[in-house]
Amino acid sequence: MPMQDHVAWNAMIAGYVHVCRSREALRVFDEMMSAGAFVGEATVVSVLTACAQMGPFGPWKVGALWRWPWRCSRAWAKGICTLGQVCGPTMNGMALECLELFNRMEIPGIHPNGFTLVAVLRGCSMAGLVDEGQECFDPMKDKHGVDPWLEHYGCVVDLYGQAG
Length: 164
Description:
Blueprint: H1 6-18, H2 22-35, H3 41-53, H4 59-65, H5 73-86, H6 94-104, H7 114-127, H8 130-137, H9 140-144, H10 150-162
């Protein structure tokens, strides 16, 4: 690429993801990291989608993606929602990855929004993680300032239903 800015890198990664060439997308992501380019929300969404497309070989890249100190709640929310909703929470064991990201979001000043909590609860429900789901649901109002929506309650009902 003649101009190696984050926009060009993101376009290449997203293009590979769009045509289901996940390995190439992740290879370009590695090159992007080596070049020291800015990694933003667009990068996060594309890389998480590539990981989901790869089946059981993709989740290892997710951990590398989240080693940086993200200070933007939107980036965290997009990552969690991508894992929890777009990719399907049970696909490739992504429910646990979703929970891991949610737990790492515990940075001062970064709080989940209602959509993020729906994604986490949905992931817990699909994976049968009753205790983890309850731990996410119980402090919603007091800890995160989010009044439960009908969707949150639906996830909790489904969580208990899945667990019998």
